[in-house]
């Protein structure tokens, strides 16, 4: 409805903001000056110990220097009471003694009906509570006592009982002259399909009143006493008062407890909430037996920036937690997320409290995991990633989920967290170096699929002069240094080459550790990457790498930040390194084979490699830095061709082979 001009200004003038806010906070006596209307307190919108929430009573505005919440008396009531704008105006107007302007007839009629429905619901709450004390409710009282709910607890939570009769509540309300349409409109009775009297919605059930954020009874939840009943729990139908997807059980009391610093816990059912609250976890709510909706999630975040989801440790509870991730991802904001505390298998919070006490629940809450960890667990649990295709599928699924996050900063942090967990899963065992995996086209040399780590050369190859040739190792070492320096100078260029870097064997431990840090921290940017390298390898490691002459003169090092040039450099050096090591592996295998009788095929392979080198030399290809194709399919440039000829010349064929040049 539209309000008359000046009504809101007068309402704000008559309402003392410090009095409105003072109901929710404790003022800091040292910082506040009540005479000047300058008041300070810990913020009611986020948990803190310092008084960063400022109220200027004269101007009628509040502002938090921590979470930046700001507004006037109306917005404060809206946020803290979880009500609409007009409801906040009505609350303040009643306190200020101001009459609410007349609404249009239709809106006025609707508001009056809602008030009447609330009155009918309160009558029902009292009637159900009285029935719990009757002889017909003896089994219900026994059940509640068995669950640890004595009379005092039942009174505190207003628990009642609906007798197993068709018109018990109906007759009681009609005896108070309540109109039929109000009883049915409140969801307490249903019209008969046979033309008879309407019948009670709840029969033979323990009754739990559901109240809104203002404390008004808006619905009931009923627990069946008959184990054969098709619906163990039954909620009120949706009415003008009750929208199941916009309501939370115990929301009003949970808001108060969360405002005092308690963590907001989300459980599955009424009994879990009652058990948690009675055990000291007062900021507990439940989503009324359904999966959490977007509106309920918004309500949770208005109470706490990081609610803890304490779902049951069964399959259904875990599925509910995983569904919630997809709902929450697009709605994440800085400082606003979810944490998850999964109960032990087969137990809910009530069971855990009874078996192990509040300490066990607190331990689970302290160990609650962030949402990103549960997202990762959902995608990897029960799966085997023993092939590139499976790993690629995992990467694709995770990328699609991360894309749902709208906030670019959060999206970036999720990407880095996922990368860290991926690293731990796939490369933790091979940290610190390693070598290229054996040739897959040589089954007699290969290790089985899924071997724990790549195997190095055999003892025969290790003792060969080829494996220890100073010029071969030096050349490889130089290329590694250029690749690593290029990656560190421009981390933005690294992503397309991650696979090549992962399989790049390093000749010394420092290069290997530097490579691992490039793979892990490149997405975080140059500053983070350099900082990590300095922390782990010492402040001189980077300087020693970047000041080497052959590194310093590399164009992309002289022009840091040039993504295209850096990418070309990394691609070229990786290709050269792969070609040389492919040829070296071929010759190492041959050298190893020479421990026995060499065959014609072996000497032929070696001869072909040498002939390719000679052809390149005779044709003057070395001077032109062109590539030639070796027997193993590798492309060799001038340096690699020279190296291959030298390697061939160094082989000792005295054990039965013949050198065919």
Automatic annotation (TrEMBL):
**Cited SMART domains:** TOPRIM, ZnF_CHCC
Q: How does the cofactor attach, per the note?
A: Binds 1 zinc ion per monomer.
Zn-finger (CHC2-type) residues: 43-67
SUPFAM superfamilies to which the protein is assigned, alphabetical: DNA primase core (SSF56731), Zinc beta-ribbon (SSF57783)
Instruction: Output one GO BP term.
Output: DNA replication, synthesis of primer
Q: What are the record's GO terms for cellular component? A: cytoplasm; DNA-directed RNA polymerase complex; primosome complex
Among its keywords, does the record have NADP?
A: no
Domain Toprim residue range list:
262-344
Q: What does this protein do?
A: RNA polymerase that catalyzes the synthesis of short RNA molecules used as primers for DNA polymerase during DNA replication.
Which family does this protein fall into?
A: Belongs to the DnaG primase family.
Q: What is this protein called?
A: DNA primase
The organism named in the record is Sulfitobacter undariae
Taxonomic lineage per UniProt? Bacteria, Pseudomonadati, Pseudomonadota, Alphaproteobacteria, Rhodobacterales
